[in-house]
Amino acid sequence: AKMGYADMGSETNSILIKHLITIGAGLVAMFIAYILGSRVYHFVAPFAFGACWLFAAGLFIFGTEINGVVRWYNIMGISIQPSEFLKLATVLLLARQLSFRQGTID
């Protein structure tokens, strides 16, 4: 029985490096998100939501077809799916809206 990456040779190193870079970028983003105060998120939420919708709408013009579907941007060899950013922006906007109604929710 062969191991999954045994036939890939030196390509496993590039996969490892890619994952380490992704983990590092995620840790930096997590640290920045931690440092920013809740007031920043409260202010930015509606703008982020609108920007994400524009980013998603831009797929009709600038999107890349992958597996027969246009759901990604290809930026410098990296595929980016705008719906993932839209999910985060939706959570921020809903949290903002619920914070306005905090007294009536209880």
Layout of SSEs?
Layout: H1 11-35, H2 38-57, H3 59-62, E1 64-66, E2 69-75, E3 78-80, H4 82-100, H5 102-105
Antiparallel strand pairs: 1-2, 2-3
Number of strands: 3
- Catalogue the unreliable spans: none
Shape: flat
Q: Helix-strand pattern, N to C?
A: HHHEEEHH
Please give the order of strands in the largest beta sheet: 1-2-3
The number of helical runs is 5
Mean pLDDT: 87
Q: SS-based structural class?
A: alpha+beta
Sheet-strand content, in percent, reads: 5-15%
Major pleated sheet: 3 strands, antiparallel
Please compute the radius of gyration using only Cα atoms.
19 Å
Helix content: 55-70%
Terminal-residue CA separation:
59 Å
